[in-house]
Amino acid sequence: MDSFAAIRDRAALRKGGEVGISRLLGTPPDNAQLAALGDDRILSQMSARIFSAGFVWSVIEAKWPGFEEAFLGFQPKALLFQPDEFWHDLAADKRIVRNPQKIRSVRDNAAFVDKVSREHGGFGRFLATWPADDQIGLTAYLAKHGSRLGGNSGQYFLRFIGWDAFIISRDMAAALRDAGLDIAEQPTSKGDLAKIQKQVNEWAGETGLSRTHISRVLAMSTGINHAPQELAAYMGE
Length: 237
Hints:
The protein is mostly helical. The protein contains 14 helices and no strands. α1 (4-14) crosses α2, α3 (39-52) packs across α4 and α11 packs across α13. The chain is globular and about 55 Å long. 36% of the residues are buried.
């Protein structure tokens, strides 16, 4: 395997040196802070990632205040109290993107969030106490017990909620392959995911960087060389 220092050097050449990389990495996430996060914000972010999948993110972001109104502030207990007619009417609500399957996922995930919250004293506390070195296990749990949270949607949910998550994007996977990790171009098998987790954990231990920052450095080291301003806007930082 290439050293992470060599990968970071390649990223620095593409992004304006160490100063450029540091600006793009952002603030390191703190999983412990999620313990205080309300279940409504958890469900809101889950839903935002699900509705954004396969859609233009900026459109979803612009409409999100309408989503918050339509879905009662994403309060799980309030949503679970609503009759079938409430959910049926949402399919014609112009405040949101009227996708019946994704609307149904909000109802299903309200039940998921509420159940986990009751078991752990808050869904945020559940996330805060999950081992930081087992993202693959956490995303598998989300995919199994939640609705439409498999694949990248689960990873993006963790990243956007503030959990220290890596995103297995096309560029990150390519960078790992270039560095010598034996994985598929589109790594989705349990074996490949385990290899990625192990390598990211090793680099986190060696460098002291968060897994989010390791993921970003990898993605910046290869692929289309997007301008720093474009990347910053994409990451919301």
